[in-house]
Write a structure and sequence with these properties.
Helices cover 41% and strands 21% of the residues. A 6-stranded mixed beta sheet has the order 3-4-2-1-6-5. The protein folds into 2 domains: 71 residues; 70 residues, Chitinase A, domain 3. A hairpin with a 6-residue loop joins strand 5 and strand 6. It contains 3 helices and 6 strands; from the N terminus they run ααββββαββ. By secondary structure, it is α+β, with helices and mostly antiparallel strands.
């Protein structure tokens, strides 16, 4: 798996999400403007509620559109061994129990998970708590992360 391939998969997933949100926004807009939903009293709020939903979905579609543009502009470069965690880095973490996680530091779409064969890659943004902890670190570094009462120790095995 290359970072270019991973970036393309992220863009594809975002485009699918964008398409679905546009359909949902159109459907909600139709419900908001349908003649059967014209209120007869101030207590009939179906059209108003549908318009709020349509607006929220349209806003989210715009956010996804910006995320798509950010990923298309992201050029995952080839980094030297022992490079530091940066935007566009693919990081392999191992917790204190030997479980491994692969993290991609992306400009948007934090929390998205992609399945690549047997492996799962999670997108983390630099603004997220884990992203902030990882930035600037390199392979071999250890970090503690999580809620104060459940801190877990991780070792960075690889940064590419």
């Amino acid at each position: 798996m290359t970072k270019q391939h991973l970036r393309d998969l992220i863009v594809q997933q975002l485009e699918n999400d964008h398409h679905l949100l546009l359909q949902a926004a159109t459907s909600a807009h139709s419900a908001a403007t349908h003649t059967e939903n014209i209120p007869d009293s101030k207590y009939e709020t179906l059209a108003l509620e549908a318009s709020y939903i349509a607006q929220g979905q349209a806003n989210r579609a715009q956010e996804i559109k910006r995320a798509i543009a950010n990923y298309r502009n992201l050029e995952p470069s080839i980094w030297a061994e022992k490079s530091k965690v940066h935007l566009g880095a693919l990081v392999l973490l191992e917790d204190e129990y030997g479980r491994q996680r692969r993290i991609f530091i992306g400009p948007d779409a934090g929390g998205m998970k992609l399945r690549l064969g047997e492996e799962e890659v999670m997108i983390v943004t630099p603004g997220a708590p884990l992203g902030k902890e990882l930035l600037g670190r390199q392979a071999g570094d250890s970090l503690e992360f999580g809620p104060v009462d459940k801190l877990q120790e991780y070792e960075i095995l690889d940064v590419c």
